[in-house]
Amino acid sequence: MYPRKSIIPEEFGLPGLVSRMPRKPVFRDRVNKARFIAKNGSCNLAHKNIREQGRFLQDVFTTLVDLKWRFTLVIFTTTFVSSWLLFAMSWWLVAFAHGDLDPGEKTRAYCVTDVKSFSSAFLFSIEVQVTIGFGGRMITEQCPTAITVLILQNIVGLIINAVMLGCIFMKTAQSNRRAETLIFSRHAVIAVRNNRLCFMIRIGDLRKSMIIGATVRLQVVRKTTTPEGEVIPIHQIDVQTESAVASNSLFLLAPLIICHVIDKNSPLYDLSAMELQCSDLEVIVILEGVVETTGITTQARTSYISEEIQWGHRFVPIVTEEEGVYSVDYSKFGNTVKVATPPCSARELDEKPSILIQTLQKSELSHQNSLRKRNSMRRNNSMRKGGNLHRNNSGLAPPKVQFFAPNDGSQNLNAVT
C-alpha cells in the first residue's frame, strides 16, 4: 500500500518548522587544561628525559637546598654516621697497628687510652668530631699517626657541619616562606575605569614588616601559531600595568588594586565577554620585592584562567578610617560587585564610543528606576502604617454616653450624647 499523505503540507509540519528555526550558537565546555602556574604559585611543569644528570652534582649545595625535607634529613644523618664509622675504623686500625688491642702487654703506652674494641673506637670518633670530651678516652703523644688522624677528622667534621647546617638554615629561611603572607584576590575583574576597559587584580601583605621595592609583572600565556605555521605552546606576552608607567616599584602598605588598561598593545584587546569565556589563556601575576627584616629577595606568584576572570565586576573598598587609624577588613578582600560594563571588546569600544555612553545611560536609568521603586515602596509602607495607626486611634475613641431624662408625662426617652 502507498503511504497516506497528510492534509498538512510537509513544510508546515513539525520537522519542517524545526529545521527552519534559527539556532543559537552553542558553546561547548572547554576541556580543562593544565595551568602553567598554580594558584599557590608553584610551577606546574615536569622535566623529563634529562640525560645530563651530572650537572646537578656540580652544584651540590643548591641541589641539597632544593631537595625535600625528608631527603635532606636522610642525607644529613647518613653523612654524619658515615663519617663517624669511617674514622672509627681509622682509630681501630691505629690501635691495632700499635698493639693497643693486645691484652698481654700492659706496660706499653697506648696511642688512645681505653680504645680496646671497635665499639670504643666508634665512641671515641664521635667524641672527637662533636667535641663532647667525656674524659674516659684520650689521645697521647706516643703515635704521630693518631695525631694526623685527629687533625683530619676535625677538618672533615667542620666541613660537614658547615655544609649541613648552612643547608638547613637556607631551607628554613627560603624566600617562599615570606611569600605565604603575600596574598592575591581569588578572581580577576574586567570593568570600566576612566572610560577604558581595565583588567584588575588585588594584592595585599598580611605582615606589618613591609616589602621594599615591590614590583608587579603581568604576563599572558597562551598557545599561538605564527604565520609560518610554527606552534608555540607557551607564548609569554608581557602586560603593562599603570603602576609601572610612573615608577617601577609599589608602596605595599595596604592592599592595592593593580590595573592594566586594555589598549591596542594589550593581548586582551580583541576579546569580548563571550570570547573570554571560550578562550584558552592564562594571566600570570608575579610580585617581587626585598623582605625588610632579612634583606632576602622574595617572589610570590599566581595565575588566572578565563573562568577566574569576572567581566563587569569591581572590587569593593576594604580600607576605612576608624578613630584616626586606617583599618583593613581582609574578610572582604576578594569581594566584588557588579557594575555597568559593555560586553564588547576594547577594540569595538574604540571604534564605537557610543556603546559605552549607551551602557552608562542604561545603567543610570535602571538605577533611577530602582530608586523610584524603593521610594514608592517606602511611601506605600508609610501610608499603610498611617492607615493602621488611624484605625487603631479610631478604635481607641471614647464611647458614647447616653443620658435618659423623663419627658412631660410620656414614656419616651431622649438620648443625649
Span of the ends, CA to CA: 100 Å
Number of helices: 11
Proportion of residues in helical segments: 25-40%
Integer average pLDDT: 78
How is the CATH topology of the domain at 178-338 named?
A: Immunoglobulin-like
- Give the class-level CATH name of the domain at 178-338: Mainly Beta
Number of strands: 15
Rg is: 42 Å
Any overview of this molecule?
The structure is a single chain. By secondary structure, the chain is α+β, with helices and mostly antiparallel strands. Among the domains are: 54-172, Helix Hairpins; 178-338, G protein-activated inward rectifier potassium channel 1 (Immunoglobulin-like, Sandwich), CATH 2.60.40.1400. The protein is 37% helix and 23% strand. The protein has 11 helices and 15 strands. It has helices at 14-20, 54-57, 60-66, 69-98, 118-130, 144-172, 175-178, 242-246, 273-278, 346-351, 354-395; strands at 182-184, 188-193, 196-205, 211-225, 231-239, 256-261, 281-291, 297-305, 309-311, 313-315, 319-322, 325-328, 336-338, 403-406, 413-416. The strands form 5 sheets. Strands 1, 2, 3, 6 and 9 form a 5-stranded mixed β-sheet that branches. Strands 5-4-7-8 form a 4-stranded antiparallel β-sheet. A hairpin with a 6-residue loop joins strand 14 and strand 15 (413-416). Helix 3 packs across helix 6, helix 4 crosses helix 5 (118-130) and helix 5 (118-130) packs across helix 6. The longest helix has 42 residues, at 354-395. The relative contact order is 0.09. The model is unreliable at 1-7, 17-31 and 400-417 (pLDDT under 50).
